[in-house]
What we know:
Layout: H1 2-12, H2 28-46, E1 50-63, E2 68-70, E3 80-92, H3 93-100, E4 106-109, H4 110-113, H5 120-145, E5 151-153, E6 157-162, E7 177-181, E8 184-185, H6 189-196, E9 204-213, E10 218-227, E11 229-230, E12 238-239, E13 242-246, E14 250-252, E15 257-259, H7 270-281, E16 291-294, E17 297-298, E18 304-305, H8 310-319, E19 324-328, H9 332-339, E20 344-348, H10 351-357
Parallel strand pairs: 3-16, 16-19, 19-20
Antiparallel strand pairs: 1-3, 1-4, 2-15, 5-14, 6-7, 6-13, 7-8, 7-9, 9-10, 11-12, 17-18
Helix pairs in contact: 5-7, 8-9
Amino acid sequence: MDDTILMETDRSDTPEPGAPERYRIPKWPFVLAAVFMVIGIAIAIAWPIKVAYYTLSPGPVYDTSDFVHVVGEDEVIDGEMFFLTVSLREANLFEYVAAQVNPKVAVAPRQNIRPPDVSPEDLRRENLARMEQSKTNAQFVALTELGYEPTYIGTGALVIETIPDSAAHGVLLADDVIIGIDGHEVAFRSDVIDDLAGREIGDRIALSVERAIEGSGEVEVVDVDIVLGVHVDDPSKPMVGVLLDNNEPIIEFPVEVDMDSQNIGGPSAGMMFTLEIMNQLTEEDLTGGLRMAGTGTISHDGAVGAIGGVTQKVHAAIDAGATVVFIPANNYDDAVAAAGDRIIVVRVETIDDALDYLGFE
């Protein structure tokens, strides 16, 4: 009896000959959707979590003539002149992993970009200050190269703030102005940096500092000694432990130049700004019809300094269709490695090297 019932039930599940088969909804789309949902939720949760690295990727490429205008001069050029930038952002886990397989993107430890106890706002302020110095230096060098006699007198290095636990913390104060190191004049922020390049960790330096006398509106000169500590970016180098800007310089330029850096920070456009100013003040076209790009700091003596992110900047120049890229001497080898045979890399130690390549006399 029981066996008969089982057999009849089995037969009821078997389609009769010629009858349509039942449609069964497959389960795999639901499983796949669930997997994607779990992955999506995991990404949404993990995406805001930052790792201790920054990513450096090719940034926008800017036409220098959009940023520089010599008043009273109309620029007519056949070629194009660009300055290069790097896009810098604090990485999350996914961006960090993606950077490992992208030759155009590099990663750098956070402390190499933004030292501990330095806020993003402080870093931004310092980079904007460095851009302002770069623009002023570019004007001075360009006008000097063309035979003008500009006045540009530095009045010291302004302390923005000190880094906690550094040698300067508690010794130097915000708004102090460093005017001397070991009896040598400090006219600009760069003078402090240049002096430290020849120092060792543990060296003692004597700083002459202008400091406001509280409540009087006057300043006094005080002497302070500092023992150089370990640099937060490079343990092999010394550090005072301050964020610096240029104190307000005394400037008199015989030519009016409007320069709008459009909230872009850093000093690396200096060389290209210099060339742009000169191009607008000369009858000949410095570009010679070239689509050219470049990067490099400029100091008031015409030296072109190294920059960061040179690999990314070379890729940006190539993507922009430039045929020539001007690169600081200290970055030249890395630039050549990134360029391959896709763009001509010109090694520049001083502004005269760039001008020689362009045939300027």
